[in-house]
Amino acid sequence: MDQAAALRKLRDKSPIKSSQNKTKKRSTKIFAISSGKGGVGKSTITVNLGLSLTLEGKKVLIMDGDLGLANINVIMGIIPKYTLYHVIRGQKTLKEIILQTPEGLSIIPGASGYTQLADLDSNARENLMKSFAEIDDFDYILIDTGAGINSVVINLIMAADEVIIVTTPEPTSITDSYGLIKSIINRNKSFKLSVIINKAKDEIDGRKVSKRVVDICNKFLNVVPKEIGVVYKDEEVERSIYVQKPFIINSPKSRAADCIFRLSRTIIEENIGQSDDDKRLSGYLKKFFANNDNEK
Ligand SMILES: Nc1ncnc2c1ncn2[C@@H]1O[C@H](COP(=O)(O)OP(=O)(O)OP(=O)(O)O)[C@@H](O)[C@H]1O
Ligand SMILES: [Mg+2]
Q1: Ligand 1, closest atom to CA 35?
Q2: Does the beta carbon of 42 lie inside 6 Å of ligand 1?
Q3: Centre of ligand 2 from the C-alpha of residue 22, in Å
Q4: What pTM does this model have?
Q5: What ranges in 37-188 are assigned the alpha helix state H?
Q6: Ligand 2 centre and the CA of 243: distance in Å?
Q7: Does 71 sit in the ligand 1 pocket, CB within 6 Å?
Q8: pLDDT tens sequence across 44-94
Q9: Most C-beta atoms within 10 A of its C-beta, which of 117, 187, 287, 290?
């Protein structure tokens, strides 16, 4: 039995049957995974949620929106030979640099130490857009935007179909999430928002924090973000970081892994982030650059 099959068995549940007609064009859903405060678990959740959706039979691609940090490479324990840097330079196509985990998750390896997406010159943008246009066959694309309320993060979010805001129970994290949501809503009142509470003590703690975020948004912004899940604080997550393996693979029976499995089912079952059929990664990038240039 391969690793992916073993994991499915462990979870004692059969994968959700894909309702997609195989001959139909895939409808790609693009999520930005974001937070007001740094260090709340965005990259950890992006990788593990991406893997969990893959184990449910979905075709998933993840990428670092913040080109310079390459968080995802570190969590996956990958030292890629080629990265987005080579695509930007026109030396490789995106297809040539995309890595696949044994479970089938596709990863665009970030270029460590390289400039931000927003600062690319027109030549580099052209190379990226051309390359991104070749990539269209995914159910979900998860973009780890990095933290903060700066214009790059906001533009990475606004180009997506939906944003998942990661918050922890810390009061500063809740306040900063509110700040980020406010900036998003100021730009687009009907932008789709979801919240995940990470590092919660337990379900009750998580739900309480989740409700607090929603209540503040409802009261002051008149919007109600969707509460899509809670991930428990679990030392297995920390341990997995040290061995550079995603925790749902390293500790599939852990409390945190169970939370991720539930989260991916919620996303599939509730069809969160559903978008137009012709949505493509190149369209995402085009929108991002357009928003970015409008501000200059
Ligand atoms: N559920 C959890 N339980 C315990 N530790 C966690 C959990 N989620 C994340 N962590 C730990 O929190 C730290 C920060 O996680 P991560 O790097 O994913 O955050 P981030 O939001 O991507 O940070 P940054 O804003 O710097 O990119 C890591 O050490 C990670 O192991
Ligand atoms: Mg990160």
Answers
A1: 21
A2: yes
A3: 34
A4: 0.87
A5: 42-55, 71-76, 84-88, 94-97, 122-133, 151-158, 171-187
A6: 17
A7: yes
A8: 999 999 999 999 999 999 988 876 667 788 788 888 888 888 888 889 988
A9: 117
